[in-house]
Amino acid sequence: MKTLKNYLLITLSIFIMAIGVYFFKFPNNFSFGGVTGFAVIVAKVLPISASDFSSLANIILLILGVFVFGKTFAIKTSYATLILSVFLTIFEYIFPLETPLTDEPMLELMFAIALPALGSAILFNIGASSGGTDVLAMILKKYTNANIGSALFFTDLIAIVLTCFIFDIKTALYSFVGLTIKSFLIDGIIENINLCKAFNIICEKPEPICNYIVHELNRSATICKATGAYTNRDKFEIITVLKRHQAMQLRQFIHDNSPDAFIIISNSSEIIGKGFFTI
Questions:
Q1: Which residue positions in the chain have pLDDT lower than 50?
Q2: Strands (E), the chain
Q3: Residue 242, C-beta contacts closer than 8 angstroms, at least 6 positions apart
Q4: Is the four-CA dihedral 65, 71, 77, 79 of positive or negative sign?
Q5: Are 58 and 85 within 8 A, CB to CB?
Q6: DSSP conformation class of 139
Q7: Residues in Cβ contact with 176 at an 8 Å cutoff, skipping those fewer than 6 apart
Q8: Distance between CA 138 and CA 27 in Å, rounded?
Q9: pLDDT in tens, 112-128
Q10: What is the pTM of this model?
Q11: Do 65 and 34 form a contact (C-beta atoms < 8 A)?
Q12: Alpha helix locations (H) across the chain?
């Protein structure tokens, strides 16, 4: 079931990415990153279409990814790369574009940034990529302390430099803005996807709350003995971390069953341990 869910997410994310790339990125010559960014440049100087170049470059970089990340990554990325090429080819056949959809480059830049960034963030979050320079960025992230957004920025910056020579400075500036925003946006989306709620619950009777956490939410918790500084009464502190929808359920349960409890809820997007992420 988890595998099926992952591949459905890959298909959805690639579809979103392909729309942003074909309808907004290619027609405007935006080249802010990825193989598709280089494809825009190459298509202007060589007798090859942007879609064909993307397919060829993705295959080469995928082989590199196999050696670094192994079989599982290779299978997911191969699937993502294949359907990205298929979507781009289908769009090219059904909706041939000679000019941008509108005469508002800033508006189209927003869609050219947001759609691929959303697609990439979903892929990175499940341990896959769309191939191309995303593979290089993941390699950089693996061997450094850089976030994936920063890694993408550095691996794709060369495309911006080349844009200055192939197109005009206006296109290059648009592309640089796009790359910068895309890098921050990917990190922000991934952080939001992984956002969890950390609970510190101070109460006198921890059993009902812990039973609900364990048996209804299928999570665990830690119980610590505590003493109220003002009342000097014995209390208990329950520490647990939940997904956002589970957090809403626990808040309601405590409100209904332990209204005297004192609750501190904080956001965290990096939880390491069983049931979340491993080191």
A1: none
A2: 196-203, 222-227, 234-243, 262-268
A3: 196, 197, 199, 213, 217, 219, 250
A4: positive
A5: yes
A6: H
A7: 32, 160
A8: 28
A9: 889 988 998 898 888 88
A10: 0.72
A11: no
A12: 2-20, 34-45, 50-69, 71-94, 105-125, 133-143, 148-166, 169-193, 207-211, 244-257
Q: What are phi and psi of 245, to 5 degrees?
A: -70, -30
Q: Residue 64 corresponds to which tokens in the numbers above?
A: 């590199």
Place of tokens 């989306």: 189
61-104: pLDDT as tens digits: 878 888 888 888 888 888 887 898 889 889 988 988 878 888 88
Tokens 């879609």 found at: 51
Closest CA to 205 of 233, 180, 231: 233
Tokens of 22: 């074909």
Residues sharing a CB contact under 8 Å with residue 92, sequence separation 6 or more, in sequence order = 22, 49, 51
Give the position of tokens 């197109």.
167
In angstroms, the CA 131 to CA 129 distance is 5
